[in-house]
Amino acid sequence: MNQARPLRVVGVSGSLHEPSRTTALVRTILDEVAARAPAETNLVEVAALGPSFAGALRRDDVSPAVEHALQLIESADLLVAASPVYRASFTGLFKHLFDFVGQYELVGTPVLVAATGGGERHALIIEHQLRPLFGFFQALTLPLGVYASDADFTAGTLTSPDVGRRVAEAVSRSIPIVEQAALVRSTEYVTTW
Length: 193
Known about the structure:
The protein has helices at residues 21-36, 46-53, 64-74, 92-99, 125-136, 161-186, and strands at residues 7-13, 39-45, 78-84, 110-117, 140-141, 146-149, 153-154, 157-158. The chain has 193 residues and is of the alpha/beta class. 42% of the residues are buried.
């Protein structure tokens, strides 16, 4: 596909810590997308923004920085959404951030879901928590998610060749879908309710 503009790719890390293995995984995915297609990438880190929206009850209560992050998320051609596993789910602030996203703003938006956890037993977060969240938004969750456990990182850097291959495969399979969805969205084909 010949795009008039680079893909708008937004990564959201639901980690509550910095440095973060989840953020490292999101950065790896964003870098892989940018290596395969013209892309403008942005990273939204819940750890940095959390204090600006943790107590907010309505979107008009959030700080300008959080509003900017929400606008980035809502205008993405590809959303990379990742959280560490916390009590068998995504972090509360990750969910709270998405509570402020407009209900129909992600319709048809491709979402590559990813997660990190202490061990392989947590990998089902992708299927049982992340996909249903983005299903609510009528987003297009991409077929391959990416999960990495603590053992896949060395000093905060993703070092597992297996996870690296999974990232490459997920991105490779996703680019044609993302480009097609961006074309559809740019022609305003998506109906709002």
